## 1
Amino acid sequence: MLNPIKVGILGLGTVGGGTVHVLQQNAKEIARRAGRGIIVTHACAKELNNTYSYQTDKIVLTKELSELVNHPELDIIVELLGGTAIAREMTLQAIANGKHVVTANKALIAKHGNEIFAAAQEKGVMVAFEAAVGGGIPIIKAIREGLAANKIKWAAGIINGTSNFILSEMREKKSDFADVLAEAQRLGYAEKDPTFDIEGVDAAHKLTIIASIAFGIPLQFDKVYMEGITNIAPEDVQYANELGYRIKHLGITKRTKKGIELRVHPTFVPNKRLIANVEGVMNAILIESDALGQSLYYGAGAGALPTGSAIIADLVDVTRALTTDSDHRVPHLAFQADALSDLPIVPIEEIEASYYLRLSAQDKLGVLAHVTNILSENAISIEAIIQKEPISGAEHVSIVILTHQVVEKQINKAIQAIENLDGLMEKVIRIRLEMLNTEMLQN
Ligand code: HSE
């Protein structure tokens, strides 16, 4: 067998520790697959994180990132720094030095991937990023290689475990958002500053990557429409339940006649769909493609060992491909670099979806009739409508409406007219609804 491949890790925290642990624990099995051993010889970290037990005596520790990316003995750099500024700099430096890079950094790929892949292509090295989307789920490989025969129609994914955990708990325990967020922070699922998770930024990074490899388009993070879960009220979770739906925070990308839709937001999903039953911190990505039909990829979206599993799969891929001509490797973004197409991204006002609307109105004659008139004037067809009995003592009632598919700007126009009605107490709550069936793409 050839000499082992030498790896340097930038950032030996939880995920880095998990990666070294699995590499050592399964060393023989990994070498049988890769054709040679893969060993971490250098790591950059303030201190060793030994949450996962691994042998440290053969790992050279340093605090200088540049020492690793410039180290002549290292073949592959694993970038686990997080953030984008230093991570970008170190990744480009490693590439310039002819090193292959494996990263779990979704923000880095979503925002700087076009530049990084161009540099890697130029230099004939690989940049692998399986761990950037869906944690341990091999979704990049599934789309890029497993579905290579297919024209992909759409993908819809639960790609942020923190948001999914919060929505699951809100439904199961009938709790409100703030209480569950505090619990998620206590359990270590949500970070101290949870903004990226609960405002949809993390999911938007991941969706950018999925869309690029699904449709062969450049990475376009700045064009993703982003909505988080902070405005989801317990009553919406309950009404969804009553109507046979679950609210899931989804990243959705679709190929339509107008272009590519790129959006992350809370979504009503029929509760009979498998993906609607993905609970807690788990992730799942549902893909509709022309030859295979629907396929669903489910698993742990975070965590030291699952993320380590994805990183090591990339290390094995890179190791196997080392002797191949760089022009004949699997392209970074699934399609040949000169075959990417610049399809337009559909503005959010132009997307088509169904909608859940919740209105809080005075309990008086004619309000409901006015509301339905406005909807019909705007050519919005109603799928279901419920007026809830007023809670005792309250002067207002909740009216819940599900619409058929309509262009978003049309529903916005109708909402504006409804909010101007005499007797409306609060702003209308609007949540998009997707059936996630094969007909989802008839527009
Ligand atoms: N913060 C992410 C999540 C995990 O909550 O899913 C890492 O991508």
Note: The first strand starts at residue 2 and ends at 10.
## 2
Amino acid sequence: MNIKITIAIDGYSSTGKSTIAKQLANQLGYVYVDSGAMYRAMTFFAMKNEFISKDHFDVTSLIENLDKAQLKFIYNPSIGFAEMYLNDENIEKAIRTLEVSNFVSQVAAISEVRKKLVTIQKEMGKNKGVVMDGRDIGTVVFTDAEIKIFMTSSAETRAKRRFDELIEKGQEVSYDDVYTNVVARDRVDTTRKDSPLVKADEAIEIDNSNLTKEEQFAIILKLVEEKLRDV
Ligand code: CDP
């Protein structure tokens, strides 16, 4: 069967969107795109150029310098997915820190930033066969996606998962700081003016608080297979 569809996965922070998106892309032979990595990359760019720090955010300079940030995904066969590059520097590890997480929602609220990234995302998905995860994939980037999933789970579960992930990567973080970040990002992401995080009407909501990765994968893969039989 050669018909390719588009799969849009949206949801709150640390709901395991990238885990399910990668599993689906591997299973189906589709391209996986982590749109959050692109917002994280723009945040890293803003931090590096001192446009944003704890007590200031120079939005004008960020907007004026957007063209100087060249983003690229390059596939790394040894890990089985694409890594994020900013101006030819591999920043995959650098963008996953709590520091970047603490600034990313402010940067992602800027319309000019969104416009730049949404244009690239649409281009990446124009031939279908793509699984993209983020906040506005089903509502803005691919409004015609054949499958739209909206992931939720309790803030405590999400913070615990993200805390464990960061500790495993060797980062020194406290559970309380991770929890605060998860809740703060949800608030900014759902209340911003441009492309707020909302469930698309036709999206299927999956609360994975009490699901293992395997159970979640089985449920969503079944939905995808049913859809592929229909198209
Ligand atoms: O992995 P996690 O769910 O914690 O976050 P992410 O997917 O890496 O996204 C980081 C941040 O980027 C989010 O909190 C949003 O502020 C922003 N984002 C967005 O605005 N739109 C997207 N399509 C993806 C991410």
Note: The pocket of cytidine-5'-diphosphate is lined by residues 13-14, 17, 35-36, 39-40, 104-105, 108, 134-137, 185, 189 (CB under 6 Å).
